[in-house]
Write a structure and sequence with these properties.
α2 packs antiparallel against α3. The radius of gyration is 23 Å and the shape is elongated. The protein starts with a helix and ends with a helix. The chain is 31% helix and 19% strand. A seven-stranded mixed sheet has the order 3-4-5-6-9-10-14, with helices on both faces. The chain has a four-stranded antiparallel sheet with strand order 2-1-12-11, covered by helices on one side. α9 links the parallel β9 and β10. The protein is an alpha/beta fold and 395 residues long.
């Protein structure tokens, strides 16, 4: 028992050289458990504040996997239950575990965020469809509230920009894939329309950036959307990455900095050409987000809230802020996979400018405005109306 205790206590500080991606064949559930446990031990980016005791997981689950047999239907059911138990308290809200059948087909998937958080929220609702959103826009257009509406649909990306009530500019994207599609004529036209309206709307009262039901994407898009609106560098958070075999091996914290378009360089240098000349210091910029806003869909409200004229309206977001970058073989961090399973997990984690980590929690709005499905399906977007009310009244 004493020797066993020493072995377990050494796992965190001195992990053996073990790469689950090198494993091509498995002969038992015990081997699959070892591969999964070690991969998580190296790659998971949140061990410094995740409540899960990963060594205790080893002690509890190792013997339970050891007695299971391949091909046994009862044991197969037990395997699902064991993996659900091991992962149920993980706070990474990007996390997805996929188990494969021997022929390579997906056997089952586990996303702890869904059952253990999202579905339990008292304001839970299913995501609205882009078609339903378009219908709310059309309803306002029929009422004469919307002018100069441009939209684009390219692959999975859908964009909208328009002026509502003659004095508010609205911009919407459902995924952050603006940069990779910017050369498409419809995308460029919708983005240019957003910038043109901000520059030329006679009595501009506010700007709404809508990332509701947005699953994230490229961080480069943040510069396209916000850099033209600011004149000063803005630090809105910090990030650090997993970068070694030790469970607590991290890079130093690095700032998330939003640069004004006038200071853009590299591949974004042409942003200098679209710097907004208009003074926007006293123009409210409202982030509209909901519980289905994930990753960049909630990092964008985080950035907007760091601006002196920024405000976040909507629902507490999903809570998956950790970027997914890097290569497991280089950093022992992030996504890893083999024949038996794939683990989709963040490479880094993020904290807000005030030092708070919202992973697994989500960003709380400055003004809560819950989704009203019945009204939405009748063409009344109550969350957008709440943003309009704030812009017009300041409250």
């Amino acid at each position: 028992m004493f020797i066993s205790t020493l072995l377990f206590s050494c796992r965190e500080e001195n992990p053996s050289v073990f790469n689950p991606q090198d494993q091509l064949e498995f002969s038992s559930w015990d081997e699959i458990f070892e591969s999964y446990w070690n991969g998580m031990n190296y790659s998971y980016a949140f061990w410094d504040f995740d409540p899960t005791d990963w060594d205790a997981v080893y002690r509890e689950y190792k013997p339970r996997f050891k007695d299971l047999e391949f091909g046994n239907s009862e044991d197969s059911t037990t395997v699902k239950e064991l993996f659900e138990g091991m992962t149920e308290n993980l706070i990474d809200h990007h996390y997805l575990l996929t188990l494969y059948k021997e022929n390579g087909e997906i056997w089952f998937q586990i996303m702890p965020a869904i059952n253990n958080d999202i579905l339990k929220r008292d304001y839970y609702h299913v995501p609205f469809s882009e078609e339903s959103l378009r219908e709310t826009i059309e309803a306002n257009e029929e009422k004469g509230r919307i002018k100069q509406w441009c939209s684009a649909q390219v692959n999975d990306l859908q964009l909208h920009s328009y002026c509502i009530d003659k004095d508010i500019v609205y911009f919407r994207l459902n995924i952050f894939a603006l940069w990779e599609n910017i050369t498409h004529p419809e995308v460029a036209k919708t983005w240019d329309n957003y910038l043109y309206l901000i520059e030329t709307t006679p009595d501009l009262k506010g700007i709404v950036i809508d990332t509701r039901c947005n699953g994230g994407g490229s961080i480069v898009d943040l510069s396209f959307i916000l850099s033209p609106l600011i004149t000063q560098e803005t630090t809105f958070g910090y990030t650090r990455s997993k970068n070694g075999m030790g469970r607590l091996d991290y890079t130093p914290w690095s700032p998330f900095i939003l640069y004004p378009a006038s200071k853009a360089d590299g591949e974004l240098e042409y942003l200098k050409e679209i710097q907004i000349e208009r003074n926007l210091e006293n123009i409210p910029i409202v982030a509209l987000a909901d519980l289905h806003s994930v990753s960049m869909g909630e990092t964008t409200p985080m950035a907007i809230c760091s601006l002196p004229n920024g405000c976040f309206i909507g629902e507490t977001t999903w809570g998956g802020h950790g970027p997914l970058t890097g290569n497991f073989n280089d950093t022992y961090g992030g996504v890893f996979a083999n024949k038996a399973f794939e683990v989709y997990t963040s490479t880094s984690h993020t904290k807000n400018i005030d030092g708070t980590i919202y992973e697994g929690i989500g960003l709380t709005p400055d003004i809560e405005a819950l989704y009203n499905e019945e009204a939405f399906m009748q063409g009344n977007d109550t969350q957008l109306e709440r943003a309009i009310q704030y812009i017009h009244t300041g409250k």
